[in-house]
Automatic annotation (TrEMBL):
<dbReference type="GO" id="GO:0030170">
    <property type="term" value="F:pyridoxal phosphate binding"/>
</dbReference>
<protein>
    <recommendedName>
        <fullName>Aminotransferase</fullName>
        <ecNumber>2.6.1.-</ecNumber>
    </recommendedName>
</protein>
<keyword id="KW-0670">Pyruvate</keyword>
<comment type="subunit">
    <text>Homodimer.</text>
</comment>
<dbReference type="InterPro" id="IPR004838">
    <property type="entry name" value="NHTrfase_class1_PyrdxlP-BS"/>
</dbReference>
<feature type="domain" description="Aminotransferase class I/classII large">
    <location>
        <begin position="32"/>
        <end position="379"/>
    </location>
</feature>
<dbReference type="InterPro" id="IPR050596">
    <property type="entry name" value="AspAT/PAT-like"/>
</dbReference>
<dbReference type="InterPro" id="IPR015422">
    <property type="entry name" value="PyrdxlP-dep_Trfase_small"/>
</dbReference>
<comment type="similarity">
    <text>Belongs to the class-I pyridoxal-phosphate-dependent aminotransferase family.</text>
</comment>
<dbReference type="InterPro" id="IPR015421">
    <property type="entry name" value="PyrdxlP-dep_Trfase_major"/>
</dbReference>
<dbReference type="InterPro" id="IPR004839">
    <property type="entry name" value="Aminotransferase_I/II_large"/>
</dbReference>
<keyword id="KW-0663">Pyridoxal phosphate</keyword>
<dbReference type="Pfam" id="PF00155">
    <property type="entry name" value="Aminotran_1_2"/>
</dbReference>
<dbReference type="GO" id="GO:0004069">
    <property type="term" value="F:L-aspartate:2-oxoglutarate aminotransferase activity"/>
</dbReference>
<dbReference type="InterPro" id="IPR015424">
    <property type="entry name" value="PyrdxlP-dep_Trfase"/>
</dbReference>
<dbReference type="GO" id="GO:0006520">
    <property type="term" value="P:amino acid metabolic process"/>
</dbReference>
<keyword id="KW-0032">Aminotransferase</keyword>
Length: 387
């Protein structure tokens, strides 16, 4: 019999991806489906990064590497963390991981014991609750409200703090809402962390896609020593399939986490690490990718402007736009399945990301502008025919 530990990670067996799965099956069978359900780029990794990897492979870099990442990579990651968080960061405050997801796993394993409690702000990225469960931790979901543009309210978070609360998990720019947390929101969160002596796990994998200067809570007073920042090259550098990310955290935690890499990844592939270091050092693709998503967001928002009874919420950054469709259909899963059936457009029901996003659908901007415009037209037809 399988262990309770693995069986309980996704206890219901339902993970919120049902619409996407159906759409993928139909697309693979040759149907013309517009896939706006998944957050993976429609373009390839920048050529310079690919070349750097090929050079490293041909150069014989095929061996085991350092558990926490090769020094050049950790150095490059530290420089980006200095830039993204505004706090001078050194390589010994960095552990390289296969993607932001493993950085999240490492963060939760580093600060939560079984039975500890954590707070997660919703709408959230779909893997957050299972990652807490994998740590054996209990968690409370605190909703950020659509009418606040999905900014979190510190007083709601504080109310959820218990004697055994150890950490709060946030994400800005946010998936799924596209909300970019304001200085005021982050300040409120930071005050709660300081008052109750909590860790803050801050998922900043979309930091280059925020449409302006990125604000990290790590830079706020009293926060550098209690903030663990997740980062990744998946979105910023167009490298989802390469599995490269990192965790920035106080040095003593990072030292301990080498043991976690020992028993899990045993370090990253050497040739990927070298290509990633070069891409970080030179910012391969970063500016172009950020500009591409900014243009797509504007184009899509223009195209859905004036849709009957549909309201845009959040949607200031990241790779997604969130549409409130509750005035047409309160059941967002029904809406998403209906849209797929009637118009061959796949979107994610907001309920996949927590209760706060129920009544919404998430649109991924991972398609070229003309396809986004076509999707908006199909959405217009579907919403106006909806009864
Ligand atoms: N965090 C957020 C908010 C995400 O949206 C994603 C991926 O979609 C991740 C983390 C994990 O990304 P990766 O493991 O590819 O770095």
């Amino acid at each position: 019999k399988p262990s309770a530990r693995v069986s309980d990670i996704i206890p219901s067996g339902k993970d919120g991806w049902e619409v996407h799965v159906e759409a993928t099956i139909r697309k693979e069978a040759g149907e013309d489906i517009i896939m706006l359900s998944i957050g993976d780029h429609d373009f390839e990794t920048p050529g310079e990064t690919v070349e750097a990897c090929v050079t490293a492979v041909r150069g014989g870099h095929h061996h085991y590497t350092h558990l926490s990442g090769i020094p050049r990579l950790r150095e490059a990651m530290a420089n980006i963390s200095t830039q993204s968080t505004g706090v001078p960061t050194t390589a010994d405050e960095i552990i390289a991981t296969p993607g932001g997801q493993l950085a999240l796993y490492a963060a939760t394993q580093a600060v939560l014991d079984p039975g500890d409690h954590a707070i997660v702000v919703a709408p959230y990225y779909a893997t957050y609750p299972p990652t807490f469960r994998a740590a054996g931790a209990d968690y409370t979901v605190v909703e950020a409200h659509p009418q606040d543009g999905f900014q979190p309210r510190a007083e709601d978070i504080e109310k959820a703090v218990r004697p055994n609360t150890r950490a709060i998990l946030i994400n800005t720019p946010n998936n799924p809402t596209g909300a970019v947390y304001t200085r005021e929101s982050l300040k409120g969160l930071a005050d709660v962390c300081v008052r109750h002596d909590l860790w803050l796990i801050s998922d900043e994998v979309y930091w280059t896609l925020g449409g302006g200067e990125h604000l990290s809570p790590r830079a706020l007073p009293g926060m550098a020593e209690r903030t663990l920042v997740l980062n990744s090259m998946s979105k910023s550098h167009g490298m989802t399939g390469w599995r490269i990310g990192w965790l920035t955290a106080p040095k003593d935690l990072i030292e301990l986490l080498a043991a976690l890499n020992l028993v899990t990844t045993y370090g990253l592939p050497d040739f990927i690490s070298r290509a990633a270091a070069e891409a970080l050092e030179n910012g391969y693709g970063v500016k172009e990718i950020a500009e591409r998503y900014a243009t797509r967001r504007t184009v899509f928002l223009d195209a859905v402007r004036g849709l009957n009874n549909v309201t845009v919420r959040g949607s200031a950054g990241g790779m997604y736009v969130m549409l409130d469709i509750s005035a047409i259909e309160p059941d967002c899963e029904k809406f998403a399945f209906g849209l797929l059936a009637a118009e061959n457009v796949a979107v994610m029901p907001g309920s996949s990301f927590g209760e706060a996003a129920a009544g919404h659908v998430r649109i991924s901007l991972c398609q070229p502008e003309d396809i986004l415009k076509e999707a908006a037209q199909r959405l217009r037809r579907f919403t106006s025919s909806y009864s």
